[in-house]
Amino acid sequence: MLILIKGVNAILNRRLVTDIKGVGPALKEKLAQLDIHTVEDLFHTYPSRYENFEVLPITELVHDQKATLEAIVLSQPVVTFYGRKKSRLVVPLQVDQVVVKGIMFNRHFAKDQMVEGKKVTVTGKWDQHRQQITISHYRIGENSSTEIEPSYGLRQIITPFQFRKVLKQAFTQFREEIVEILPNRYLTEYKLLSRGMALEQIHFPQDINHLKQARRRLIYEEFLLFQLKMQGLRQLNIDRTQGQRKEFSETDLIEFINQLPFQLTEAQSKAKQEILDDMRSPHRMHRLLQGDVGSGKTVVAAIALYAAFLAGFQGAIMVPTEILAEQHYQSLTKLFEGKLVVEFLTGSVKGKERKRKLAAIESGEVNVIVGTHALIQDDVSYANLGLVIVDEQHRFGVNQRKVLREKGIDPDVLFMTATPIPRTLAITSFGDMDMSMIDQMPVGRKSVETFWVKESMMPRIINLIEKEVKSGGQAYIIAPLIEESDKLDIQNAVDLYQNLSNTFSIPIEIGLLHGRLTPSEKDEVMQAFAENKVQVLVSTTVVEVGVNVPNATIMVIYDAERFGLSQLHQLRGRVGRGDKQSYCILIADPKGETGKERMQIMTETTNGFVLAEHDLKLRGPGEFFGKKQSGLPEFKLADPIHDYRALETARKDAIEIVTNNYLEENQEFQQLKQLMDHVLMEYQVGFD
CA–CA separation, 217 vs 405, rounded Å? Predict the structure, then answer.
């Protein structure tokens, strides 16, 4: 969000902190360590939390919660010393007509301040059963008018007292210079505080209600600025990425769709139409297609590839692994049989065969190319690449995706993912992309039955696996990742593999897959499993996303409580790809309520989007995507999960502003325009 704050500064008087009375070189240096250089930076350094000292009647206090009481000291406190320099102070307090016991630890000096008959205000944990309060904070006298005290993350660089003194002086001097950036229509419609009032109330709240209103205003502002930035970047991408309009015969395309071996679901049809509309437009497509495991994304991709072919262009689909590339190649060859030429290119294709394929791709003899990152090697040239599809796009780096785009002349780009992304994260993480969603399962597809059991049920699970193998089925058994340690992870899988080797009562071939195997070794194991040469595959979570093994009907996950819902759902998606009934068995003994809740939800729904939303609530966005690669924007005040209604409203307003060109044509939006011009100008500097 730094770029936005810079932008905000750009439309205000850039007052430096040294313009504040009392801020000299030493204090300036301390503030700089907190990344505070201007008055605006200071105003936007929000409290990390608040101490609420609102006094409530005893009847309204909640057991085990923090409370503030106004009381009279009934008699002199009694202090007891114990251990090394430890003390316990007990003081009887009268609150209204009730006697309350006040307890304080390691503050024996308070004995001299708490004189019999004096009024005191105490804050601490309330014990309703004992009618006592464990005091964490006290002051002599009645509660002051400031019932809410902000607390800042100052990292001990500056004292809270000093920081608040600087803030107070800044508001005294520069309150009138705070520029309102929101148009009146939003202030009126949403009943928002003015910007100056909101900033002042966030730091010096009059009461709880004023604090809530200040937060509401500033959260909406932060989301609106972010969404305007997303819409602006999207427009920049469109303006700078002129594509090639693809003209194709609607009749021929409908004929192709009608001869597919199954009927498209409503969700597939909607996604297909959005993609085709993009391809017909003069701008380059930049779309994310997300769909649950088995929802039929590949068929939609195939229709887009066929449309590109009808328009006279080549299409390429890039996937993370060789086995996935081979499976895509086989399914697309079947779908396009007799209509167009599909070729397969991976790192293992060498020598004369590679030269032959490269020549056919360059000449335009090949219409659709399926492969791994081999598609972006220097020696690969395309005749007229018009459509690029990247499957499981998060598995490729930005540069790899960029190189494939550059292999064509402004090709349309479609990213696909089988990881259902909750709407709130999708809006914040992929706001500069168009999005299509397939949230329906194909008709007739059997739902995977999911059970949560204890490890004592393993003999029955073994019997079930044997029964399935006898009728041609296969099983995955997943060993957990322990503390992200390769060594422990492999040892776990190896132990499990060795134990199972002596467990089955019928001849069963068992395979082992883990992170220490080379890519070619992994492919070899997966290939053996796909061909049913291996009936039971013991694996860590490296088992590939999307690998299609129709015979696999059982997924057993050990210590399932160690995984998030989204990961469990992805693993469950490895089975149920054929026409047989499939089962997912979660072996877990969670100790906490969250773990039990996760297991329960898994047995109740197979909808990946529902699970993703639950996962987000239980684990948070960093855990959902993985902390290192989450790519989530950091907001100063707003929280996309808890404040999702404000996020949705801001997104709707940002789209309306950009669509109706308000920034250019409406005087009411001039402050926003000035700010966004600055933001996008900074972005353009690094765009190329």
Answer: 41
Q: What is the Cα–Cα distance from 495 to 119, expressed in whole angstroms? A: 68
> pLDDT class for 7, splitting at 50, 70, 90?
very low
Q: Given this model, what pLDDT does residue 632 score?
A: 53
Give the pLDDT confidence of 331-368 residue by residue, as tens digits.
Answer: 899 999 989 999 999 888 888 989 999 999 999 999 99
Q: Taking the model in full, what pTM does it have?
A: 0.63
Nearest Cα residue to 248 out of 198, 305, 191:
305
Host H or E run for residue 98: strand 98-105
Lookup: tokens for 323: 């086995």
- Phi, psi (deg, nearest 5) at residue 526: -65, -35
What's the helix, strand, coil split of the chain in %, to 5? Answer: 45, 20, 35
Tell me whether strands 66-73 and 86-95 are parallel, antiparallel or unpaired: antiparallel
Helices (H), 407-485: 423-429, 458-470
In degrees and rounded to multiples of 5, residue 474 shows phi and psi of -135, 165
Taking residues 474-500, what's their average pLDDT? 71
Residue 681 has a pLDDT of 63
Handedness of CA 488, 492, 493, 499 (dihedral sign): positive
Query: Considering the chain, what percentage of its residues have pLDDT values greater than 90?
Result: 42
Q: Report the C-alpha gap between 341 and 332 in whole angstroms.
A: 10
| Max Cα–Cα distance, the chain, nearest Å | 100
CA–CA separation, 402 and 168 (whole Å): 50
- DSSP labels, 160-225: HHHHHHHHHHHHHHHGGGPPP-S-HHHHHHTTPPPHHHHHHHHHS-SSHHHHHHHHHHHHHHHHHH
- B/e letters for 93-105, b = 16+ CB within 10 Å, e = fewer, are bebeeeebebbbe
Of 64-78, 106-120, 296-310, 562-576, the one with minimum mean pLDDT is 562-576
Residue 92: is its pLDDT beyond 90? yes
Average pLDDT over residues 500-517: 87
Provide the Cα torsion 445, 449, 450, 454; round to 10°: -150
What is the C-alpha radius of gyration for the chain, rounded to an integer number of angstroms? 32
**Highest mean predicted confidence (pLDDT) among 145-149, 452-456, 514-518:** 452-456
CB 549, CB 574: distance < 8 Å: yes
Element at 327 (helix H, strand E): helix 322-335
- Distance of alpha carbon 176 from alpha carbon 321, whole angstroms: 60
pLDDT of residue 147: 67
Beta bridge partners of 372: none
What's 55's DSSP letter? B
The tokens for 545 are: 């996303």
- Using the structure block, give the residue that is written with the tokens 């192709």: 256
Tell me the β-bridge partners of 70. 121
Q: What beta strand segments (E) does 454-523 contain?
A: 474-478, 510-513
